[in-house]
Amino acid sequence: MIAAGLLLVALALVVIYTDRGALLSPLALVVVAAIGFAALLLQLRLRPDLSSSTRGPLWLNVSGVLFAVVAMCADFFHLNPVMMLIAALGAVVSFGVSGIIVLSALRKRRV
Q1: pLDDT at position 76
Q2: 99: burial class by Cβ within 10 Å (0-12, 13-18, 19+)?
């Protein structure tokens, strides 16, 4: 419960201290997706009965982090905006698919 509350506080801080224009950025979507995925992984870590049998694919998680780093570097160094959009979309899709795989495994385990 405490960990979920801390992640909600992190998400609230991102939303509160970010102006309206920045929330329309693809990087904001990457940050929100990463916070949500971190919440899912933290739930798996804190519940020992689930952590041993339920895992997302490592290559998908690593690709999501790499896409996020490329998107942030493309924004920071003012590189091609299309590259930033594609990298941000790749990060969000990677985090989303990995989250779906983990949630599907949790659901199959419970039923």
Answers
A1: 86
A2: buried
